[in-house]
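Standup notes
- DV: blocked on the single-chain target, sequence here:
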Amino acid sequence: MPVKGVRVRFPPRVQQKPLIWRWVAFVILYLFMFYTYILQSTKSGRYYVGHTSNIEERLGRHNTGKVTATKNKGPWIVMCYEVYETKGEANSRELYIKSMKNRAFIENLIKNFKNN
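- DV (later): unblocked, structure below
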């Protein structure tokens, strides 16, 4: 028999965010990632370093001749990439790699990417 005047309190319910919000958060994180990438020409063996927010789209632009620097030198394949949260970070990394002006440095990056 319950005791009169005594209130039983239950712990508050832990509310989870609806699945749609978790999906939206994932999409936002995915869409706002930036990449520094290294391409290699299957025709000449040359390397190209760049940065983008969409690797697949950018590779398509390189292979269709819409990028002046890589026009008539392709087809290109992605050899490695690095992920960054901001465009500035990706751009800084691109400029650093280009400043090395060293094929061995780029090939070492590719080797390390494939080993991980």
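- Follow-up: Residues 87-100 form the longest helix (14 residues).
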